[in-house]
Design the sequence.
């Protein structure tokens, strides 16, 4: 069972009610007990990579949609003079 700190009292450790076995709680436990430096450096690195991965593709899709909008806007503002110079 994964334990998380209670925000009200730093000396009391309670079971995590929200997730039980989420990667964020495991990562916090590795940091809290300093297990990342000696015992499990590879596991710590794996959790860092896992926590940086996006859960959905929304951010990626938004950036491509914005790029598509900008490219279309720039193409429509190009005049014949600019096109002939190339």
Sequence:
């Amino acid at each position: 069972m994964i334990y998380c700190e209670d925000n009200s009292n730093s000396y009391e450790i309670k079971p995590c009610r929200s997730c039980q076995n989420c990667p964020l709680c495991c990562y916090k436990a590795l940091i809290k007990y300093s297990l990342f430096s000696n015992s499990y450096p590879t596991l710590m690195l794996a959790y860092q990579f896992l926590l940086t991965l996006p859960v959905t593709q929304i951010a990626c899709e938004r950036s491509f949609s914005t790029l598509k909008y900008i490219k279309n806007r720039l193409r429509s503002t190009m005049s014949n003079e600019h096109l002939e110079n190339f």
Remarks:
- Helices lie at 23-32, 41-52, 58-77, 80-85.
